[in-house]
Structures are given as C-alpha cells and as structure tokens.
Give the backbone structure.
Amino acid sequence: MPDVKAPGYNRQQAALFSKLIHQVAREHQLDPQLLHAIVTVESGYNPGATSPKGAQGLMQLMPDTAARFGVRNRADPLQSLRGGARYLRFLQGHFKQDMTLVIAAYNAGEGAVGKYRNTIPPYRETREYVAKVLASYESRAGQPLVPVRQPRFQLILPPPRYPL
C-alpha cells in the first residue's frame, strides 16, 4: 500500500456535517471517525460532489449502490451518509471486520475484492484510496484503524553456548 499523508479538508465544511456524521454513526454502530475519514477522501465534505464515474454526494454513492441501500437523493447529506453507513455495515459483515478489505470494497466494490481472493485489488486508485482513508482516520483519531500486524511466528534462537 502506498505511503500517503492524510488528505486535507475544509474544517469549517467538516464542522457543518459533524453532528450529522456522529448521529448516523451512532444509528449504524460505526466509528464516527471512519465516516469522517471516508467523507474526507470521497467528497471533501462537499454534498454536491460528483465523480467522473457518476458517484455523488458526501459518501460518493454510485446509482446502483444508492438504490441497493435505500438512497433516493444522493445529494442529500443525510441520505448519503445513511446509505454509505449501511453499505459499510454490510461490508464489515461480509469481510468479517477486516477494515482494509472493507475500505477497499467501498471503493472498488465487494466483487472486485472477492475476485482477488479477499485481498486489496491491484488497482492503483483503490490502493491509494485505502491508504488515504487509513491516514485520514489515524490523523483524526490519533490511532490507527487497523492494528499493526504482528508476525505469525517468531524466530527464537537458543542462547549462545559460550560467553561473548
């Protein structure tokens, strides 16, 4: 995964949506800092944002994803946040709380993650997206979203036979 810095965002714009983000996070039992991190990367807190691929709103929902999770107006901040939160909850269950896969699937779709045997797809955009969301989360929360993985095994050497 690329090493990136947390993306910048307009703090005044973020403050406008902070209460709403916390409300939606509570409703869907999500970490509000995760929603903030995704909104930061997806739309920079611009509810009118539209991507070249057709994603729209704070959570940048594609039309099919919006329909799947009950969003009628993707530009409506509350609907966008609720739809994105429902999708995140679905992805958390689908990928057994593996947050790197959840974030990758939010960007590329759960089918793409599955196609690559439940790993982050080798798409540059998705790898950068995951890195940016994780960096944004850590910048806001003061701790990593994904714990540093410990090696599955540890090499244990016997003590030296002779004093050094």
Notes: The mean pLDDT is 92.
